[in-house]
Structures are given as structure tokens and as C-alpha cells.
Amino acid sequence: MDPTLVGIIGLAVALLLIALRTPIAFALGAVAITCIFIFFAFPASGGMHLQRAIKPTLTLSTGTMFELFHSYSLSAIPMFVALGHISYKAGITSDIYFAARAWLNRVPGGLAMASVIGCGGFAAISGSSLACAATMGRVAVPEMQKHGYSDALATGSVAAGGTLGSLIPPSILFILYGVFAEESISSLFIAGVIPGLLSMAGYWLVIAIWASVRPQDAASGSQTFRMSERMMALVNSWPALLIFLIIIGGIYGGIFTATEAAGVSFVVVTVISFVTKRITLKEYFEAIKETAYQTAAIFLIAGAAKIFVTFVSLTGVTNAMLVLVQSYDPSAAVLLIGIAVIYLIMGMFLDPLGILLLTLPFVLPLMEQNGYNLIWFGVIVVKLLEIGLITPPVGLNVFVINSVTEPKVPVGRIFAGVTPFFAMDLVVLGLLLAFPALSLWLT
């Protein structure tokens, strides 16, 4: 059987299973293992060798996963996940929001701006967009509603701000991209800093314009904070600032690798949480248990995706796609726009982790062939995945916000709220595409 045909059929079946809402780990893993078996059982030279196909199929599948799970870089994921869960249990992530609220409370739209800062601070610790949206949705949305903010602005700002967890380091997506693209995770983290801050500034601009055009949607807070209270709120957020400095300052200063920064920050947040009595032993073990569940899910998806990459390489689908693209001879701009459109469309239906691991075997060779910097491209991909989190009809952050608000804010209302932020994301994406130096300046 023609290997390329096997690859094309396998890819089509994988996409169909994912469209039918099959868990992506099982869709990718089952298709990849089956197609690898068919590749060896029905070689292009002819004949049928079912018995002889079992051993190479098992060897490739298990060997590929073993190699991935023993990756030094991948060990940063459980530590960063634990860092986020412990920081949440200890209230460290919420302190950033309360400090920003104290300073911006009297500014029109200030509470929404504080929510975006809180999301950015949470993102800088947890690396998870969905966790960021869920936490800030419970904390910030009721606060804004209490002060007369419209449901659209209150939920839209948090849903959009929650996407910063994908871009502001540490980012689980950056770690997985670095492992699969064989690029420096530390460089990816540093490259995400300016785009992350640019996205945050863009969200602030949206809120400022919204508050000016529709002041009834974003009244200034009625609560007045004395200067001493503002300073105390700022001081109370010192653990979050320290963790961010360890991660970014340590990596940028050449003191730590990304994995070492994960380990050090995990130890630091654990010590701080217990010494300051922010967390009990029971809450700590709950955080570790949640870390184990989330890490297992991530590793299962990554392992299945790694087998899928092996299947794609074995059947030559990537080479066939490269030949097809070359036959059209697209310009660099057309190629980038085409890839961006594909990611945006997939973002309407799939979760970011699934999109990343499904597409990398195909887009990375295209980028390498055309001489693009893969660090810069990693930032572009993560930004596109970030946009997908608020893109209808299946913007995951929107549904997370819907699930945590009481009373429930209708999904349609939340999507209306994120629309201006979605437009700003497209502006930021355009800047990152037009000016690669925005991503590469610090690396």
C-alpha cells in the first residue's frame, strides 16, 4: 500500500474523530498506532505481513513515548503546574488583582483594567489560560458587577485577559512547542514577554475606549482606598513579584534554564506559603493531587502526539504536503496568512493543546524550508492559539467564564463582550507578523 495514501487516510480519520469530540489523546494515538501497523503489514513492495508488523509497531510506539517522557525540558511542566495550583490555594495569584484594584478603583474602567493585570499576574505564575479564566472569573467578575459594570465588559475583559496565560511565561504551550520544535524553551519564554505585555496594553486600550464611549458600562468604583491601604495591597503582592523575577530574571540573566527556574520557583512558593501560613497541609496536598491529574492529561496528549509525529514522518505525508505547497509557489505573506487562517478556524472548534500538537508536524517543516525563525514562529503560533480561546463558537475561555459566574451570564453576552478584545488581538497579531523584532528583541 502506498505509504502517502496511508498517511492521508490516517490524517483524515484523526480529524474526523476529533470533530466527533473524541478525546484528542485517544484520537491521535489510536490512528497513529493503527497506521504504523498498516505501514509495516502492507509494505509498498506488496504482500501482507501481519505477524512481522507487530514488533516494529510496538517498538516505535513505546520507544517514541519513552524518549518523550524522559525529556529534561518536559519535566518543567509538572513543576509549573504545581506552582500555579499552590499559588492559587495560597491566595498569591489573587493578591495581584487586589493590588491593581486598589490603585485603579477610581479610574473609569479601572476594575476591568485591574482584572486584566490580575490575569497577567496569574498567567505569569500558572502558565494556564483556562485556570486563569476560571480563577479570575470567580474573583473579578462579581466585583465588577457589584460596582455596576455591564455583564459584557465584566466577562469579556476576564475571558480575554485569561488568554494571557498562553503567552506570558511560563507557558505550557511554549514548553511543548519547544520540545517538539527542538528549540530553546528559555528563549521562547523570553520571546513571549514583549508580545504578552503588548497584548495586555491592547486590552487596556480597549477598556479605556469602551469606558469613554459607553460610560454606563464601566463606572468608576465607589470604594475609596487610602494611600496606606494601596501601599499595603502592593506590599502583599510581593510573593507573586518574586516568583516572576525568579522565572524571567533568572532565565534572562543566564542563571537558570527554564526547567531549573521551574524547580526553584516551586520550592520558593512552597516555602513562602507555609512560612506565611497562607496554606494548610491539606490544601497543599490537594494542590499536588490536582497537579498530578493535570500533568497526567498533558503527558498523555503529548505522548499520543509524539507517536502521531512518528506516523506522519514514516508515511511521508509531510513531504507530500511540502511538494504540494511548493507547486503553488506562494509568497511569504500568503503562506503566513494561510497558516494564520487555518489556526483561527481550528481555534473555533478545538482546544489549544490539541491544535498545537496536531499541526506542528506539518507547519514546522514549511517554516524551516522558508527560512523563518522558529522562536518567532512559536510566538505567532501561541498568539493564534490564544485568540482561539475567545473565538466563537467554541471559545473555551468564554465557556469557562459562563460556568463560574453566578448568576450565569449567557454565552452570547460573553461573546459580545470579547468581540472588541478579539479585534485588538488581530491588531497585535498583525504587529507581531510585521515586526519580528517585537518577539526577538530580548532573546
TrEMBL record:
Keywords: Cell inner membrane, Cell membrane, Membrane, Transmembrane, Transmembrane helix, Transport
Subcellular location: Cell inner membrane
One GO MF term: transmembrane transporter activity
Topology versus the membrane: Multi-pass membrane protein
Domain TRAP C4-dicarboxylate transport system permease DctM subunit as annotated: residue spans: 12-438
Cellular component GO terms held in the UniProt record: plasma membrane
InterPro entries found in the cross-reference section: DctM, TRAP_DctM
Protein's UniProt keywords contain Amino-acid biosynthesis: no
Membrane-spanning parts: 31-50, 71-91, 111-141, 153-177, 189-213, 234-255, 261-280, 292-314, 334-362, 374-401, 421-442
NCBIfam families to which the protein is assigned, alphabetical: dctM
Similarity comment text for this entry: Belongs to the TRAP transporter large permease family.
Function: Part of the tripartite ATP-independent periplasmic (TRAP) transport system.
Record text on subunit structure and interactions: The complex comprises the extracytoplasmic solute receptor protein and the two transmembrane proteins.
Protein name per the record: TRAP transporter large permease protein
Natural source organism: Thalassovita taeanensis
